[in-house]
Amino acid sequence: MATMMQSKEERKLHKASPIFILLDNIKKIIFPVLVALVGPGGSYWEYIALAIALLVSLASVIQYRFYRYWLEPNQIRVKEGILFRNERQVPYKRIQNLNLTQNPLHRILGVVTVQLESASGGKPEAVISVVDMEAVKELKRLVHGADETVEEDVQPEEGTQTKPSLLSLPFSEIVRYGVITNKGLVILAVVFGFLSQLSDGALKDYIEHKIVAFANWVTASFDSVLGDFGALTIVVYGLVLAILGLVGLWLLSITFALFKLHDFELLKNKGKLQATMGLLTRMQATIPMSRIQTLTVRNSLLHRWFKRLTISVETAGGVNHENQGLAIKEIAPLINQQQRAKMLRDIQPDVSWQAIEWLGIESRAVRRITKKLLLVSAIVSAPLAFLHWGWTIPAFTVLSTLGYLYARAYVKNTAYCLDQDMIGFKSGVIFKKETYVRLSKIQTVQVKESLFDRRYGMAKLEVDTAGAIVGAHHVDIPYIMLQDAMRIQNKLVERVSSRQFVW
User: Fold this and answer.
1) What pTM did the predictor assign?
2) CA 29, CA 27: separation in Å to the nearest integer?
3) The domain containing residue 188 runs over which residues?
């Protein structure tokens, strides 16, 4: 009874919350402020930057002052806002994911930021920043049951772990992950995006001067080694730059991976998966296995080179958020191919993975895909006639041949499966992907026919689950005969209707 009364008490954010809210708001406005500070001269730009900083600081204090929440017996209730008051009630049974994050400052102060995701997808139902560990313990008990515990730190202490570990990533595997994902392109794009927004000023002039100086040094080095060999110098120059660029991108990606996946640990406890990771900012996501909507196995060309693959899951609320990247989708960021069968059984133990029977799509799809790619090849090759008429036919021949080979490989690698528990689909040539959906998670099944589908008697089957983004079907099976698509639809509807839908 005492616990019941305590759960109904009004609660405020931690006293340190304004600091974290301010830091989060600074991340959102740091770009325009920097642009203002390094912009085209004039003191008014500095005044603008100062005004923005003051407004952000004031907003942080106001957000802390007017934020309240209640941990009631069956729901969490959140109230925030000044002029426009916003109050939300989120039943605990609707919460799909409970995600925690701790940066170094969080750990020093003994607090954590909590993100609650429901089956609606999109934005989180609630983001509570920042609360103490006692409140987190109570919230986890209310969401996941009385047996749930939480460590004083997002990172479990060594020697205290009692939950069975499914996966950990040593340093060598994190390096492989960085090479395979190659997120350096994203980092580089962000950097160049920032530089492109800089107006003329001392900072931009300094950066441009350093870039030009480096380019001149590289050119002079090549000239001194190769001399004037004409085309050979250009070829070697280009190859070396390409190699250096690729290595640089990989180094950036590896660095990003080390910060993201440091001390990665995937635990399993009483029907729940718990993933913890991060070097500076520790993140923890708790996912009930019964609430997994889809399971995806990714196997790119680099994955296959290293004999590795990635397994990710989606829950109804597991959508990537622009400002809160706490949702951990890749519960197995990188595993070797020998671990695949065991990992799939651990994540979905009630699925008969060994009994999967794959059915290929219609073989005539090769002809349809080839025709599409022939049109693309003609469009790409035609402009070459303006440069040299003799280039058009060879270019078209090469592109159309590659298109035909791609079409054959695509049809060969594309298949679907259907049993008593799930439906699956796999496809891809360079980037291979397998997606599995439990029948109890299916919400809609559609059969669609395009104009060209009807000419060939084909159709496309689309299967959606809860929280699916519009147009992003979890299973999309193209190029199958219409009667097969209708048969599968009827079978799915029959099996789904005989099962209780589970979020």
Assistant:
1) 0.76
2) 6
3) 179-260
